[in-house]
Structures are given as C-alpha cells and as structure tokens.
Amino acid sequence: MSEGLHLAAALDGAGWHPAAWREPDARPAELLSAGYWKDLAVEAERGLLDFVTIEDSLGPPADRTDRVQGRLDAVLTASRVAPHTRHLGFIPTAIATHTEPFHLSKAIATLDYVSSGRAGLRVRVSASQADADHFGRRQVPSREDLFDEAADYIEVVRRLWDSWEDDAEIRDVATGRFIDRDKLHYIDFEGRFFSVKGPSITPRPPQGQPPVAVLAHVPVAYRLAERGADIVFVTERNAPVEGPAVFTDLVVFLDDTQQAAAARKARLDEVAGEEYASDAEIFTGTPAGLADFLADWDTPGFRLRPGAIPHDLTAITRGLVPELQRRGLFRREYEASTLRGLLGLDRPANRYAA
Amino acid sequence: MTKQMHLAAHFPGVNNTTVWSDPDAGSHIEFSSFVRLAQTAERAKFDFFFLAEGLRLREQGGKIYDLDVVGRPDTFTVLAALAAVTERLGLTGTINSTFNEPFEVARQFASLDHLSAGRAGWNVVTSWDAFTGENFRRGGYLPEDQRYVRAKRFLETATELFDSWRSGDVLADKESGEFVSRADAGSFERHDEQFDIHGRFDVPRSPQGRPVILQAGDSDEGREFAAATADAIFTRHGMKKEGQAFYSDVKGRLAKYGRTPEQLVVLPAATFVLGDTDAEAAELADIVRHQQVSGQTAIKFLEQVWNRDLSAYDPDGPLPEVDPVVGENTIARGRASVRMYRDPIATAREWRELAEAKNLSIREVVIEKTGRQNLIGAPETVANSMIDLVDSEACDGFILVPHVTPGGLDPFADKVVPLLQERGAFRTEYTGSTLRDHLGIDVR
Questions:
Q1: Which of A242, B23, B113, B315 has its Cα between 20 and 30 A from that of B50?
Q2: Is B402 helix (H, G, I), strand (E, B) or coil?
Q3: What are phi and psi of B297, to 5 degrees?
Q4: A319 φ, ψ to 5°?
C-alpha cells in the first residue's frame, strides 16, 4: 500500500452497537433512505477516508423488537450514493454462497462506471441454514466447501471483468463492426460447484479489476484472502496472512475525554442490556488517544467500525483525521481519483490480452 | 377532454435500431450517457426511464455478434445511481425471472424503491434458453412450456415478500425502545413447483409497496399473464390497427381478474424521426434506416429468417433462391426476435413477392420489412398522430426509443412534448412523486 495511514469506515445501520439507534443524534427512522446514506458517504469523504464498506446479509432480521431491523442491498446503496461523491471508494458486501457471480461481476463493474473507478467488492460466505432457507436450493455446504466455493466465485467475477479487453470497442464504420470480437473472451470456468461461460455483458470496468476484500479471522478465511483478495480485514494483531493489503478492524467509541467515551459506551451497554462484544478490538477513548493507538500499530490500514452513527463517524472525520494530519500521518487531500489509486495499486493488465 | 398519455424513455439498446455510427453517438456504458437521457426525460416530465437486459452476448453463426452495440450495465446498479441524479422520474428495468431467485430480486427492488423514494419499476421477463443459462451457476433454464409458470410463481413469491412487511411495522421509537411493532414482520413461506422457501424478508415495506410491474410478453400466455399481474404492458404493436386490436384484446382480459381497463397501461415501443417538415423527416428517416441496416446487417438479418449461412450473398443483389431452414433457429442465439418468424417459408415467399414487385435488393427488402420508425414527421405531425393513437385506443402512451445515445431524446423533448402539453395530452408538471402516482395505478 502507498505511504501513510489508510482509513476506512465500516457502515452498518445506526452503528455497530445494538443500542446505537436510540442515541439522541441517531436517525433510526431514516436507515432505509437515500439521504441517510448520502450524508454518511459525504461525511466520510470530508474526512478523506480511503473507502467505506457497507455491510449486507441475506438472512432474516433480528428476532428482537428492540433491535434495528431491515437493511438495503449494499451494492445498490453504494451506487445510489456514489454520484454524490468524487473520491471516496465504495466496498459493498456480497454473499457468495447464494448469489450468481455473473450478476455480481456486472453489478460491481457498473458501480465502477457509476463512480468512475471507485468500486470494490467484499465477498462473504453464509453458513447459516436460515439464509439458505430463503433460497431453498440446498443445504449449507461444509465450511471448507463454503470457502472453496467463494474462491471460485471470486475467480469467476475477476475473469468476467477481464473478459473484455480495454480496447474491444472499435466502432469501425467501414466494416460495420462495433466491437472486435477477438478481444472478447469466453471465461469457460468449470469448477467443483458451478460453471460459467462468459463473456460478461458489461465491458471491462474503469479500474480493470476493482479491489476485492475479505474479512478473515480463521485460517480458512486467511487462505481465501491470500487466494483471491486485494484487501483483507483482520481482527487480530499479526494476523497470519500475506499478500493482500491489511486493514485492521476496530470498533470505536470516541469522545472529547476518556471519561465521556467510557460513560457513553456504558450507557449504550445498559440500554442494550448487555456489554457489547465484538470479533474486533474495541477502542473507547479520545481521537488523540486513538491516533496514538493507530500510530503504534505495525500495519498501516484500519477499517473503523463506528459504535454509533453519526457520533463516532463524525469523531473519526473531524477528530481523528485532523489529529493524524497534524502528526503528518494522514493525507491532507485526495491524491488519486480511483480506489486502486488511493490504495497504491496499479491498474492490472488483462489476463486475456495477448 | 383530450386523454392524458404516458411517456417513457428507452435507453437505446443492443439492437440495430441504435445508430452507433452517427457522429453524435456517445458511449453506451459511461454513466454520463445514462444521466443525459434520464435528465432529458425528467425535464420533459416523462413517466419513466426504461432499461432492457440481455444476459448473454448474442451470437450468430457461432460467433459473438459484432455489428450492433455490444455491452450494457447491470440494470439494478445503474437504476440506483440514476436515482441520485433525478427526483421524480420512474426507474424501470428488465429483470429475468429464470436466472434469478425471488428473495434476492425482491430485496433488490424493495431496496431500489426505498433508495428512489418510490420510483422503481420491474419489467418481468421470462427466458428458457440453455444458451443464456450457461452464464449461471444454477443453469436455471427451463422447458419452454414452463417459462410462464416460473414467471408467475416468481412474481407471486416476490409479491408475498413485498407484502410481508406492512407500513407501520417500523416504529424506530427511541423512547419506548421498540424498533418494530411485531417480531414476525417479514415472515414468508412458499412451497410450489418452482420454489420451496421460507423465512423472514429483511426489507421493510417500500414507498410504493411494490414496484410497478411491466410485462412484455406477446403470446396468448404472455398477454394473460400481463392481464393477471401487470400494471403496464410494453408492446411492439405501435401501428394504429394492430395497436387497437392488441389494446382491446389485453384490456378485454382484465375483467376476469376483477380489474378495470385503466389498471393496465398499454405502452408500445415507438421510434421517431423529426424534421422541420414532414418531407424532411421522411428523408431523414430513410437515411436513418440505411444507417440501421447496413449491407452487413441486412445479410445477418436475412440469416436469422433463413436460419442458414448467407455470408456469400451480396446485400445489394437479389434475395437467395434457397429456402429457409425450417425448425429450431440455430443460426442466431440469444435473440428473442427470431421467434417472430414462426413460418419462415411463408416469410420468404412474402419477401420475394415484395422484392419482385418493387425490384428490391436484399438490403432494401430488409429495410422495408423491418421498418421500425413509428413516428416520422414535423413535430406537429408527430404530436397529432400520438394524440390520435391514444384517443383511438391503440395505446395509453409510448415508450420512446431514440436511435442515438445519449442525446437522441432531446429534439423530442424540446419540440414534441410542448405541443402535447399545449393540447392537454401530457402533464406540464409532475403531480405526484412516485411512479405509481405518475401512472395512476395503486397497489392492488
């Protein structure tokens, strides 16, 4: 990755704490509105963040009436708000287990066109029988198979992105040909779980290959990240993964003083009726304290999960970011216009180009 | 009082009516082209924007077809982005019921409806070909006779999902701590010959309740499906006489479903060529037809009807003496239009008679027989004929298909729409905010 810290915000509903929606500045009635998501994206871009991720699931909503229920398709949410921004990357989540790689490949390619090169993709698996029941096609595969299937899925999505060479469109009036069909390629993928013929119906996206991300905290997921991802979200220090750019996940509760942050977190826990637990480390403190914490880390990328939105997102963009800038650790303006560019990744050659 | 018509804008697609060789023709994939057409349509107070879909690149003679525009975006994703740059325009697109699952599609349409504040529309199409199925992990292709069963069950299932949340289920009440009013909102269960699914849908009821449903089927089965389920029907019957026959046929099917004629809006696809005078427009239309049907395109088109390789023939020469190959069309794949020629021998006979009578070449026959411009003339003439078609119950409005991307609708918006408005045949302002408001069709 390019020099300096890299920061992303993980957007999900009213924030990651289950009681976040009851905070005074929360907007729980607007979680399904475009305006809400637009405001969050604009705020993230104001803070010069590399990208936002948008969580998704194909499962049932929470089974408690005191928790946020309902969510929108993440790819569509990203596409809806991307035109309101100019630099921020968008990495929506997609569930490989139950969706078609052909559809997803063209959806992310289209998001890349809509955003002029700022699309990414985070691939998840689903091991839940409740999710599988929404599709009714099959039983949940074994964990090994789920991840092997996801690896094939990423491979197919990537081949489809490359299935058009960049200069395939020729518009040759003399011969009447719109494309040079020799520059379109069947991907002919045949794997253990499915086969896909190709080519894509969508030309190669502006970035060539939008970055693919995977969240990993177990060996089988680290292997998936190494096989197919450009970005890996990790939840432990010194995660055993090599290759993809590492972003460490942290849940953050940020206030002007340590005491205020701790008190707010305690209040949220009390409202929720239990202490908040997460797969990621939880940071409760001041933006300056978080800056110290990040500066000491051995990897430069962080995906911050705001405990409550907008409070903790704004604390990242207006508290943490200026603090890091003062220390010379974070960009003062966007230095690239694509997501790959922000991450310091070159535009890759097409695997099918001669 | 003059009847109010409905207007929609079709993004010029992957077929030979789109003239990519025009010097003004822009990108078919850059977002700016979609923005341009959608904003023109909204400026002209159109009901909706329409985007077609095809899930496998078309092939002819075993090779990817390269003479027309190739390449298109993902329907859902581009419609969601267009919601950001428009405020009232309906956003409709084709989504296939064969190569998708209802839970995912219902979720995407409910999401689109939320993200556009009630402007989503779904053209439900059905497909059965194994050729397209090769792009999908589930294969998913069907025996032809089951495609409407699949589409029907798919739409029923999606409807159950849309209706699984009621308005008012989401309280989001910070004080009481109740986010929803009932724990089982979203519950659904479907067991039929196509789907065996149950669980809870996770998108609360969207502004329109359900997206507007469009249908484009033309067979008896397709018309029946539309009469039973659709809010609007997209047809190719744009001429007056055949339009009237189609119109009375589909409207006549509504009563048995307890529906009134105004609950199904009939919209033919309509191409147009405008000129300062009718004579100038006719001249331009001829030029456009020749752009749409190049010599190469004419041969390819003839192959689709003849169902055989005719690459050795000269497009400026006479029709082939050999007869079409009868049976399954194997020359062209991924192309629904070949089904229009169900009796190719009869078609060939008809075309030969025409060629003989008028002394026409292959290219000229194809130009004549595939004439796609419906509305040709000075703006006044075009406005008159549109009003006449609506008043004489040939249709309720039009889905306009410009032949140039992205600016092809501009002259229509600038010159014809004001005339329609003056005549009281088309709205001068939007009176509602949702697509259902524009079409005047509530959720049943």
A1: B23
A2: coil
A3: -65, -40
A4: -110, -60
Distance between first and last Cα of chain B: 28
CA atoms within 13 A on the CB side of A141: 16
* Contact call for A181 and B114, based on CB within 8 A: no
CB contact under 8 A, B179 and A77: no
Neighboring chain B residues of A101 at a CB cutoff of 8 Å: 137
Q: Note the CATH number of domain A6-127+209-343.
A: 3.20.20.30
Query: pLDDT tens-digit profile of B79-123?
Result: 999 999 999 999 999 999 999 999 999 999 999 999 999 999 999
Closest partner residue to A178 among B70, B85, B203, by Cβ? B70
In chain B, domain spans:
6-275+373-439, 294-369
- Rounded-to-integer distance, Cα A254 and Cα A313, Å: 9
Amino acid, res. A99? T
Residue A184, SS3 per DSSP:
strand
| CA nearest to A240, candidates A299, A303, A158, A300 | A299
CB-based contacts of B341, cutoff 8 Å, min separation 6: B304, B305, B347
Q: How far apart are CA A346 and CA A53, in angstroms?
A: 21
- Burial label, A275 (beta-carbon count in 10 A; 0-12, 13-18, 19+): exposed
Check if the beta carbon of residue B133 is closer than 8 Å to that of residue B100.
no
A164: DSSP letter: B
Instruction: Please name the member of B63, B69, B72 whose beta carbon is closest to the beta carbon of A178.
Output: B69
B112/A196 Cβ within 8 A: no
Half-sphere exposure of B383 (CA within 13 A, CB side): 22
> To which residue do tokens 């003399």 refer?
A174
Phi, psi (rounded to 5 degrees) for A350: -80, 130
Average pLDDT over residues A91-104: 97
Burial B383-412 (b: 16+ CB within 10 A, else e): bbbbbebbeebbbbbbbbbbbbbbbbbbbb
List the end-to-end C-alpha distance of chain A, in Å, as a whole number.
28
ipTM of the complex: 0.98
For residue A21, give every residue at least 6 positions away whose Cβ sits within 8 Å of its Cβ, in sequence order, or none. A13, A14, A15, A28, A31, A68, B172, B174, B179
pTM, whole model, 2 decimals?
0.97
CATH topology of domain B6-275+373-439: TIM Barrel (3.20.20)
Distance CA B300, CA B296 (A): 6
Q: How far is CA A224 from CA A74, A79, A127, A129, A231, in A?
A: 22, 26, 15, 22, 11
Task: In whole angstroms, give the CA distance from residue A341 to residue A120.
Answer: 12
Cα–Cα distance measured from residue A244 to residue B196, given in angstroms and rounded to the nearest whole number: 39
* Site of tokens 């397709």: B222
A121-150 pLDDT, tens digit each: 999 999 999 999 999 977 889 999 999 999
